[in-house]
Structure formats: C-alpha cells, structure tokens
C-alpha cells in the first residue's frame, strides 16, 4: 500500500465553522487608510482509495488549511497566500500582499466586490456521514466496486482503476467592502474502469457515481455499467467516413456543454478569446437548448449559496432557447465589461477569484434515451470522446476529437466502432442540436445534462 498527499479539493455550500469567519474578519480589521482588503480562509480534507486486483493499491488522506489575501491601493493589486492559519504566518502574508501591491501596475477596473443586494439562497450541502465514514468502510467501497465490475460479465478480464473518493471543504471570505460570508460542502464519488477482451482485442468501459451520502452510492450499478460499456465495444472496427447525427449519453453531453460554458466566462470574453465574445443577444444554438449555471441547485456538487468573493450565487441563464443571454462575471470582469458580477467568482482559499462555471446544466426535454435511439434512422451513439482538451480550440471553436461507440441503424443499436474522428465547430454543434433527453445525469465536476442528439457531424473513419 502506498500513501500520498493530494492537493485539496474545494466546494461550496452554507454554514461553515465560525472560527474561519473570525480569522478572516480579524485580518480585514487591519486595513489602513485608502486600503481595500479581501481575505479568504479555507480548510479541507480529502480521501482517495484505489483498489487493484482485490487489494488496496493506495490509500490517500490529506487535510489542508490556508489563507489568501488581496490588497488594493489606488488600483494596484497585491496578493499573497499561506498554508497555515497561524496568526504570525497570516500577518506575514498580509505584509507580503501589501508589498506586492506597491510593485503592481495600476488597473482602473481593479477593486473588490461590492454588496449588490441579492440575498443568498440557504442550502445545506454538508453531510456528516462523509466525515464519519471509517477507513475500512471506504476500502470496502473501492474493493466492492472492483468486484462488481469483474463479476458483471465473464468477458471482463480486469479492472484498470477502482476508486472511492470524498472531500469536505470550508471557506470563509471577508472584505473591507462589508462582505462577510462562509461556505461548506461535502461530496463523495465512485469511479471504475473495466477491461473486456475477446479474440479481436481489449476494450474499456467507465462507470461513475457521485453524491453527498456514501450510503447512497450505487456500487453494484456503477461496476455493472462499466462492464457493459466495455463489453458492448468488443469487436469494434473503423466505420466508413460519413456525415451523420451523433447521440451523446448524459455524461458526455454534460462534458461537452461544460466546455462550451467555459467559453462564456468573463475572463475569456473580455480578452476576445471566446468564439461568442461579440454575440450577446444572438441566436447561437438550437431553440431546443437552454443552458444555465445555477449554483443554488443542490443536485449539483458545484452548488453553493455564495461565490468566491462573498456575493450571493444565483441562477444565470447562459443560453435561453438558443439565444445567448449572459456571460459569467466576477466583480472585475463585470466592471471591465460595463455590467456587473453575476455571482460567479470561483476560488480556493489560496488563490485569487476568477469568473467560472459552478453548476452548469442543460434544461431537460421530454424524450427518454430509448426514444432518442428509436427516432434515429442512422447515427452514432458516442460512448467516449478522446482528446477533448487538445482537440477543441476554445478560441476559434474548432472541434476534432477521437470517438468510439455504437452505430444506430433503423432505430436500433448496431455494430461497435472505434478509431473514428468527429469534426465540427462548437458553434455548429450548438446549432445542430436536434433532440434533448429528459433524464439529467450529474457528474462529480458539478455539471449536469440529459442526452443530446446533434445532427450532421462529420465522422472520419476508414
């Protein structure tokens, strides 16, 4: 068994331990004349158990705490952080932030978030069961997940990874602008990769489950799903090059739409590095598509009542029936763009805030997965996308990624295919959504989506 210390995870919710808020507030009280100060104080714990071949490959547990301090004087911003909540260490970080501000270039948009009158939505995202779960129980979950994947089908020859993970994180923010807030959340998840083999070769299938209650995690179902996905690709070959609709299962639809939502954040928009930077108010997607970022939705593991600058989180509609309605802003990009913060600042305790996606979701439609397949005369059910980050240019929108999955013929699943490339642009993919499923699946990342059918995608194969 090996051990290591991973970087801490961050998440948001309501009602942290009071001492973090007190620590942040005491630093703010040290502000001098003409000086703005913002302090973020955080504490987190995380566990990761990895099983392999019926034994524990690694058990990782970590606890971290830290503070980040921003100082703004005459448009100059200084920042410093520390990995301790010791008073002397925090005092040194404050002195360093002040010193860094003296060397910064003035920025006319620099400043802290100001109260905007939006009330925070009270949501409870903390579950003591995550903290109370013992090491042996966590190990049993990882080992049980591996057994479930192996035992689901005789063609499963091994399990590449079988992981149980959890996190608990708290964050408090205080500033001279009068904002004082605190957040906390817990989460847990399972992840497994099964290997299936036949005379033609080996295929891989994945299963993931996530939530806030360890007892609600579906060990057997997650292992079985990974096995099914691996086995149904056995015998896969290259398909002829053609143009056809693609059917994205909810987890892949959420992944793709999460990438698209990342092009709608204020930092890339103000720099002109988004393909949608100058499209506000335009129709950029199918009328079937509504895309929201709603951190007040407790179903998302990215949910929270306040953002990284202490402003209330709120439901932001990015795309409404195909029309671009909102970019996600923190206070800086809001000022720079001539609008305001959308309560979308994300941060860790030891980092500066920036606008980001917190709980992106696609609004569901009315059709189930079987109906979507049955309604497709010819298409491709995509089971995995390879090279999403290297194959997607978030500035131009160019999209070219590897894929594998199952052909659809006359409304029924047909032969498996592999080593094909799907090509389009993000702009075209949005406009070509021709059906939206009804069942939303939430990923550990906090994104959620139903299945999507996207028409007229170029598939390069044999």
Characterize the structure shown.
Helix 4 (135-151) runs parallel beside helix 5 (219-231). With 462 residues, the chain is of the alpha+beta class. Helices cover 22% and strands 37% of the residues. The chain starts with 17 loop residues before the first helix and ends with a strand. The strands form 5 sheets. Strands 3-2-1-4-5-6 form a 6-stranded antiparallel β-sheet. A 5-stranded mixed barrel has the order 7-14-15-16-20. It contains 11 helices and 20 strands.
Task: Write a brief structural summary.
The chain is an alpha+beta fold and 462 residues long. It has eleven helices and 20 strands.
Overview features:
single chain, about 450 residues, alpha+beta, 20 strands, about 35% strand, disordered N terminus
Question: What's the layout of helices and strands?
Answer:
Blueprint: H1 18-28, E1 36-52, E2 55-73, E3 76-82, H2 87-103, H3 128-132, H4 135-151, E4 156-175, E5 180-198, E6 201-211, H5 219-231, E7 242-248, H6 250-261, H7 266-270, E8 291-293, E9 316-320, E10 323-324, H8 331-336, E11 345-346, E12 354-355, E13 360-362, H9 369-374, E14 378-386, H10 388-391, E15 398-409, E16 412-425, H11 426-431, E17 433-436, E18 441-442, E19 448-449, E20 452-460
Parallel strand pairs: 7-14
Antiparallel strand pairs: 1-2, 1-4, 2-3, 4-5, 5-6, 7-20, 8-9, 8-13, 9-10, 11-12, 14-15, 15-16, 16-20, 17-20, 18-19
Average pLDDT rating? 94
What would you call the shape?
globular
Total count of strands = 20
Radius of gyration, Cα only, in angstroms?
Answer: 24 Å
- What is the helix content? 10-25%
Structural class: alpha+beta
Taking the alpha carbons of the first and last residues, their distance comes to 45 Å
> With helices defined by DSSP (H or I, 4 residues minimum), what is the helix count?
11
* Strand composition percent: 35-45%
Numbering strands along the chain, what is their spatial order in the largest sheet? 3-2-1-4-5-6
- How would a textbook summarize the main sheet? 6 strands, antiparallel
Which spans of ≥5 residues are poorly predicted at pLDDT below 50? Answer: 1-18
């Amino acid at each position: 068994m090996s051990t290591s210390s991973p970087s801490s995870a961050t998440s948001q919710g309501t009602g942290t331990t009071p001492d973090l808020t007190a620590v942040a507030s005491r630093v703010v009280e040290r502000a001098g004349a003409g000086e703005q100060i913002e302090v973020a104080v955080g504490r987190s714990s995380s566990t990761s158990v990895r099983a392999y071949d019926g034994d524990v490959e690694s058990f990782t547990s970590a606890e971290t705490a830290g503070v980040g301090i921003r100082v703004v004087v005459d448009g100059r911003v200084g920042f410093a952080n520390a990995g301790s909540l010791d008073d002397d260490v925090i005092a040194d970080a404050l002195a360093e932030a002040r010193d860094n501000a003296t060397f910064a270039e003035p920025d006319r948009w620099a400043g802290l978030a100001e109260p905007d009158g939006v009330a925070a939505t009270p949501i409870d995202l903390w579950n003591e069961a995550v903290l109370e779960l013992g090491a042996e129980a966590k190990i049993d979950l990882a080992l049980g997940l591996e057994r479930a994947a192996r035992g689901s089908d005789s063609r499963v020859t091994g399990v590449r990874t079988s992981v149980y993970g959890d996190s608990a994180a708290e964050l408090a923010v205080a500033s001279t602008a009068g904002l004082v807030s605190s957040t906390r959340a817990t989460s847990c998840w399972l992840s497994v990769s099964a290997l299936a083999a036949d005379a033609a070769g080996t295929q891989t299938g994945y299963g993931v489950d996530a939530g806030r209650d360890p007892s609600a995690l579906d060990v057997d179902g997650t292992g079985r799903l990974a096995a099914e996905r691996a086995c149904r690709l056995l015998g896969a070959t290259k398909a002829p090059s053609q143009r056809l609709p693609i059917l994205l299962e909810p987890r892949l639809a959420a992944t793709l739409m999460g990438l698209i939502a990342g092009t709608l954040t204020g930092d890339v928009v103000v720099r002109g590095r988004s393909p949608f930077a100058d499209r506000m108010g335009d129709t950029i997607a199918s009328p079937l598509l509504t895309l929201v970022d709603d951190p007040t939705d407790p179903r998302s593991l990215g949910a929270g009542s306040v953002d990284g600058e202490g402003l209330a989180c709120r439901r932001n509609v990015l795309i409404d029936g195909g029309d671009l309605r909102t970019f996600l802003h923190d206070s800086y990009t809001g000022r720079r763009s001539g609008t305001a913060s959308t309560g979308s600042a994300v941060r860790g305790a030891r980092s500066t805030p920036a606008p980001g996606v917190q709980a992106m979701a696609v609004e569901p439609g009315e059709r189930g997965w079987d109906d979507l397949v049955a309604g497709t005369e010819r298409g491709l059910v995509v089971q995995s996308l390879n090279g999403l980050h290297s194959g997607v240019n978030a500035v131009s929108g160019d999209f070219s990624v590897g894929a594998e999955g199952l052909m659809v013929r006359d409304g029924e699943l047909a032969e498996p295919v592999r080593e094909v490339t799907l090509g389009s642009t993000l702009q075209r993919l949005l406009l070509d959504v021709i059906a939206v499923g009804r069942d939303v699946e939430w990923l550990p990342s906090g994104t959620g989506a139903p299945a999507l059918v996207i028409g007229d995608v170029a598939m390069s194969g044999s």
